[in-house]
Design a protein that fits this description.
globular; single chain; two-stranded antiparallel ribbon; Rossmann fold; alpha/beta
Length: 260
């Protein structure tokens, strides 16, 4: 690895400092220490990221301490990053009948969908979303919005807007990505969805030669699996040997499937 080696995209989800039970890591620092640690991550990542690179930081909070993600953003800003986009990862959503609209054919009665883990507090609402902060070095990096676009519900928009040439629109910054409820013991206490990583990478765009994605908190390999599906190279780091073994097994299986 020479001095010219740089990363195109960093996609990661570090521990949130909320007491999750990991094998090799104690997820309960003092808040000042945790934020200092994030600042060091921001500094080091800035030095290896290309000038036109993207850093996608997934981070959540507890209902009793909702400011942690915003304090984390400040640390990245202090390290030189610009906050270009704030994405809301929605893990569960309920839509009632009166909010659907007459033109939507999917469901006439409303519905609830997604992973839902209620909290017992009589003071706070159940938290069913997390943040994905998109940092760049300039704050005005062109992105490939239509690569993760969605079809228009009202197809008349395709003809009404001169800028529209296909049945595909900007997804926006609210992403509903569910993951299955697991009734048994998890392989990892905070699984990062493969689809979330894939959307981030595609949003950045990957038209350059030797495109590389890095996940400094690889866990059980979600970012790597997304890269294999997209046909791009990746590197990752992880301190837990059990997670590394699990990730390597999953990566090997994914590569076999991708080669068929």
């Amino acid at each position: 690895m020479n001095n010219e080696f740089k990363i195109d995209v960093i996609v990661t989800s570090p521990p949130y400092n909320i007491g999750k039970k990991y094998n090799e890591y104690y997820d309960r620092m003092k808040e000042d220490g945790y934020l200092k640690w994030l600042y060091e991550i921001a500094q080091k990542s800035y030095s290896v990221l290309k000038f036109n690179g993207s850093f996608f930081l997934n981070i959540g909070e507890t209902s009793s301490n909702p400011l942690v993600p915003f304090n984390a953003v400040n640390k990245f800003l202090n390290a030189g990053y610009k906050l270009q986009n704030t994405i809301h990862w929605i893990k569960s959503i309920s839509i009632e009948k009166e909010d659907i609209g007459n033109s939507n054919p999917l469901c006439a009665e409303g519905f609830s969908i997604g992973h839902y883990k209620p909290i017992r507090s009589n003071r706070f609402l159940t938290n069913i979303h997390e943040y994905v902060f998109h940092f760049t070095k300039t704050g005005n990096l062109p992105i490939d919005k239509l690569s993760i676009g969605v079809p228009y519900q009202d197809k008349t928009n395709i003809k009404r807007w001169k800028s529209v040439s296909q049945d595909r629109k900007d997804r926006g910054n609210v992403w509903f990505i569910s993951y299955p409820t697991i009734q048994r013991e998890r392989s990892h206490p905070a699984i990062f969805p493969e689809k979330l990583a894939k959307l981030c990478i595609k949003l950045h765009g990957n038209n350059t030669k030797d495109f590389i994605v890095y996940d400094p908190f690889m866990g059980i390999g979600s970012t790597a699996l997304a890269c294999i599906e997209l046909g791009i190279d990746f590197i990752g780091t992880e301190i837990d040997l059990n997670y590394i073994e699990y990730a390597n097994e999953s990566i090997a299986k994914k590569r076999i499937l991708a080669s068929k």
